[in-house]
What does this fold into?
Amino acid sequence: MALTRRQKEVLDFIADFLDRNGYSPSYDEIAVGLHLASLATVHKHIGALEDKNYLRRSFNRSRSLEVTSKFADEMRRIRRDAGPPLSIPLAGRIAAGAPVEAVAGTETLSFSDFAGNEDTYALEVRGDSMIDDHILSGDFVLVERTTEVRDGEIIVALVRGAETTLKRLYREANDMARLQPANAGMEPIRVPLADLQIQGRVLAVLRKYR
It folds into this structure.
């Protein structure tokens, strides 16, 4: 049986609270946590989740809500259908200078914020204009599609409708833009802001070694 959006929010809230605290939330905590108008609304949603066999409650004790195996089974199915996880274990930290102790932990490095966002895309870098920012020819940059950027950010820009370039943006007097390379051997590009179409800002750099 399908859940409404609000029923799913209530179920997720209860499951997350149970996972973090080891006991179920009170009805007041559910109402406050989900900004529900009244306890009657909480009762209504919990009753509907019971009828759909997602929740179980005991009437002889407080904090009696339990998530049924049906919910766990559906979460496993959703994760399976979603394909490989968009995260990898963060095994520790390593110094590029003096050695430091590497300690394995339980943290993960998630790429879901990038891969799950339709406004994020990748570009392969060609050229050496950004080498002092450690962006090399052959690297891949992850770009957020936006026209709202701050001075000093690395952007993807279309210049005079013809040339796309990767540079740091600085706005100057008289409605001019300076596209600053990160290479001491190259000169900045100066163009009127009207001739510049900002296509996105760089979020991250990826480099393959094989």
User: Anything to note?
Assistant: The longest strand covers residues 196-206.
